[in-house]
Amino acid sequence: MKSLTRIAITAGLLGLATTALAQPKPEAYVKERQSALSLMGWYFGPLGAVAKGEKPFNKDEAVRATTFLVQLTKMPWEGFAAGTDKAGNTKARPEIWAKQDDFKKKADAMQAEVAKLAQYASAGDEANFKKQVGAVGGSCKACHDDYRAK
Amino acid sequence: MTPPAPALVAAPVWDIFVRLFHWSLATLVVIAVVTGKVGGNAIQWHMVAGGGILALVLFRVMWGFAGGEYARFISFVASPARTLRFARGLIGRGHEYVIGHNPLGGWMVLAMLALFTTQAVFGLFSNDEIMTTGPLARYVSDETSIAFMSRHRILAPVLIVLVALHIAAVLYHLFVKNENLVRPMLNGRKSLPAALAAEARDGRKASIALGVTLLAVAIAVVVTVFQWSKLFPG
Fold first, then answer.
1. Residue ranges in chain B modelled with pLDDT below 50
2. Chain B interface residues (partner A, CB cutoff 8 A)
3. What is the pTM of this model?
4. Which chain A residue has its CA at the smallest distance from B42's CA?
5. Domains in chain B, ordered, with CATH?
6. What is the ipTM of this complex?
7. Which residues of B touch A138 (CB under 8 A)?
8. Which residues contact A2 (CB under 8 A, 6 or more apart)?
9. d(CA A24, CA B15)
10. Range of A76's domain?
11. Could you report the per-residue pLDDT of A97-142, keeping only the tens digit for each?
């Protein structure tokens, strides 16, 4: 009986310890999503300049940037976990959590556009690449318009 | 309800630059609103439209001092008392003919000029944090250009409300006061009671050469601003 109690207490403490470890603070989620979105901006910005003709198209650079972007654009969404709507210094609007389906739809649409952009980059298809940069930009904006504080 | 129509005589009121300004501005504002909403690669055209709007309002401010009689601010900026009196008459049964902008319209012109200029300047310094920055955004901190972006977004619907009010006033004149204000803005000629028409005919005429020069100055200023980073690198 005594050993059973000990096991139960140990298990309980371990459980508490692991939940404490597995559950980052809300601010950490905000940091996660903002970091991912900042990196997306870092790698996408120069492609915008290419689309506008301010920078020449370079296949190697385009492949490098889009390879990163395909991975980066998968990242920020887990940072929008429940209960993180008011944490830290966030511009995320509460509508994100009220309209989860639409938010996810727009996030998925953006990732699909980025995947296409990566294909045009590796195909070295400059004309379509430039057009597709606009489509990606539009998919960023679709979400910002609805879910980001003005 | 229609007020009794006095005998009206057509007289030249809006000079060619006022008309060109008006319809070019209207067109560019529509383009700016649509391309701003669409985003993506259309944003390039949004910036072109914004530059055009800035050039037009700069021109119009100069023209407000140097244009034809009824283009001048001094001819249409009315005192609050006069504006109030006119507004009362507007709600009432009668109809007061005015040669140029009526007192309320005059204030609307000033409000729109001020706010379109403000909106264009906000745009110059804006950064949308996606793929577009205004031509002067690089000269301020990221924090500042993001704040300008935010103001640019907030002011946009205010401008749309102003434009809607402007159009509503024109429709009110057309259907309630039985005065067509659109046609004069197209052909420059307003139908007025005889005494006002005679006064309008004597009004100062616009100088075409001066108008072309000022328009060129306004365009040159805006092109310089947009090309600033290329003209003065480093």
1. 1
2. 38-44, 128-132, 150, 153-154
3. 0.89
4. A134
5. 8-231 (1.20.950.20)
6. 0.81
7. 38-40
8. none
9. 68
10. 26-147
11. 999 999 999 999 999 999 999 999 999 999 999 999 999 999 999 9
